[in-house]
Amino acid sequence: MGLNLEAIELIRQLKYRYFRAIDTADMETLKEVFAEDATVCYVGGTYRFEAEGRDKILEALSYAFHAEAIAFHHGNHPEIEVHSDVEASGRWYLRDWFLDLRRKKTTDGASFYKDRYVFKDGAWRIQHSGYERVWEIVEPVTHTPNITAHYLAKHGKVLPEGME
Fold it and tell me: pTM of this prediction?
């Protein structure tokens, strides 16, 4: 069987949209990226996040990528396998960095995503997304950096006082 290059490219674009939407708290784009019955499982050195259903995933992400955060997610080295006209899987190497000004800490790390994709309603969507950290470094922020541009400050969810 030959490679389904069109499906591979559409899935690459899907995952790239996911990374962009995460870092910009673009919940409308994330709604289009995930299948309605999607699941996620993200395992870090300091956390494990699991959720079922697109709405629950989006709600959690809107609180994670809030107005007092700065995020950088860079996915590369995709290994995409198309199993049929409606099913595919992929691995991605993630390099990310996250500054949480509210909690005064940075998280720096790398992971391998293992995703499953489905073709629904005329488009590829993420059915399941998960990763386990290859490495993770969490550091306290001892002084506020000189931030000269901060997209999430304008577009991320404003968290209520006292909410961690």
Answer: 0.93
Q: Considering the domain boundaries, does residue 164 fall inside one?
A: no
Q: Look up the CATH number of the domain holding residue 42.
A: 3.10.450.50
Return the closest-CA partner of residue 27 out of 72, 57, 68, 69.
Answer: 57
Domain that holds residue 143: 5-155
Question: Is 161 part of a structural domain of the chain?
Answer: no
pLDDT at position 11 over 90:
yes
Q: What is the dihedral of CA 69, 72, 78, 80, to 10 degrees?
A: 20
Task: Give the total number of structural domains in the chain.
Answer: 1
Better-predicted residue by pLDDT, 164 or 70: 70
Both tokens assigned to 107: 């998280």
What is the Cα–Cα distance from 53 to 105, expressed in whole angstroms?
29
For the chain, the residue count is 164
For the chain, the distance separating the N- and C-terminal CA atoms, rounded to the nearest angstrom, is 50
Kindly state whether residue 49 falls inside one of the protein's structural domains: yes
Q: State residue 3's pLDDT score.
A: 83
